[in-house]
Design brief:
- The chain is an alpha/beta fold and about 325 residues long.
- It is built from 13 helices and 14 strands.
- The protein has two domains: about 140 residues, Rossmann fold (3-Layer(aba) Sandwich); about 180 residues, Rossmann fold.
- Strand 3, helix 3 and strand 4 form a beta-alpha-beta unit.
- Helix 1 packs parallel to helix 13 and helix 5 packs across helix 8.
- It is globular, with a radius of gyration of 21 Å.
- The chain starts with 7 loop residues before the first strand and ends with a strand.
């Protein structure tokens, strides 16, 4: 084990300066990776005892190049790009920072919902170009009294659901992995049942082998005409080809996507009923500061023998989250 003054933490993607200062105060040297590609990571990781990464994750190859590595701290709640199997094999602790960007993602979810329902970006473009008749050519919808289908009932899903219910009088239906009663909402059994009822579908579930491409042609074919879908969770949750087809066919009235693949951008670029943002969910100044501090604290906890606030445990091909009290 390295001495405290020898600890180095590789920062694979930029984080808020407050997190850097936190590491330095603890005597941990931040190593700023100039690029998140594998070659650059491999060149910078060998002497590091910890890593802070965002959506770039950390591959098994990178871990194997770092014999001193003890902690991988994910800047955010999503850990799917981290090779958990290799981390377990090397006894590397993988931590996350759930809750730190919740409010930021909730507010973007609402922003995308309004933007899609009222076609705000398309209206803005038409008005700037002097195109008349936009409001006569299109239809627009309200949320009040409609039905919202919330997929995933974690911190973000719960807060989004509460706002939609309490502020707009929306009926809530929820699909969640945990079998429980949710006050003020109806739990349903299948995606298809939710799509048949919902005017708004909003995704707030982690990406895993079980949820990858969970929104596909079958569920989309059940969509209530005029429904809109919002995704501020993970791009891989949606079969983008199937979604593009449903939009072309008019099965869905629109979509708001904070995440999609490069291929998805091409599919949706010409569809004015789709609002695209480049993964802005957790990028408010407030959220970035909270998340960077939490990620840095997790590194410090592991390197000083304390319990991080949230640890991902890999067992028999499945992952679970353990939260410290």
């Amino acid at each position: 084990m390295c001495k405290q003054d020898q600890h180095k933490c590789l920062i694979i993607q930029p984080i808020h300066e407050a997190g850097i200062a936190c590491l330095e105060k603890a005597g941990i040297e931040p190593v700023l990776c100039p690029d998140a590609d594998l070659a650059t990571v491999l060149a910078n990781i060998p002497e590091c005892t910890a890593v802070i990464t965002r959506d770039a994750g950390l591959s098994g190859d990178a871990m194997r190049a770092a014999p001193l590595l003890r902690a991988v701290s994910v800047h955010g709640a999503g850990y799917d790009p981290v090779d958990l199997k290799q981390a377990k094999a090397m006894a590397i602790t993988v931590c996350t920072t759930p809750g730190t960007n919740t409010q930021s993602v909730v507010e973007l979810t609402l922003a995308l919902t309004f933007a899609v329902a009222r076609r705000v970006p398309a209206a803005d473009r038409a008005f700037r170009l002097g195109q008349s008749g936009f409001r006569e050519r299109h239809t627009f919808s309200e949320l009040q009294g409609k039905t919202a289908f919330v997929i995933g009932w974690g911190n973000i899903g719960q807060r989004v659901g509460a706002i939609l219910r309490d502020a707009f009088g929306m009926k809530l239906i929820v699909l969640t992995r945990s079998n429980r009663t949710i006050q003020g909402a109806d739990c349903i059994e299948t995606l298809e049942d939710g799509f048949r009822q919902a005017d708004l579908i909003t995704l707030h579930t982690p990406l895993s082998d079980q949820t990858r491409a969970m929104i596909g042609a079958q569920s989309l074919s059940c969509a209530k005409p005029g429904a809109i879908i919002i995704n501020t969770a993970r791009a891989g949750l949606i079969d983008e080809g199937a979604l593009a087809q449903a939009l072309h066919d008019g099965r869905l009235a629109g979509a708001g996507l904070d995440l999609c693949s490069p291929e998805g951008v091409s599919l949706f670029a010409e569809l004015e009923q789709v609002v695209l943002t480049p993964h802005l969910g957790g990028t408010t100044e407030d959220a970035l500061r909270r998340t960077a501090l939490a990620a840095a604290d997790n590194v410090i906890y592991v390197l000083t023998g304390q319990n991080p606030t949230s640890v991902v445990e890999f067992q028999s091909g499945t992952e679970t989250i353990r939260k410290s009290l």
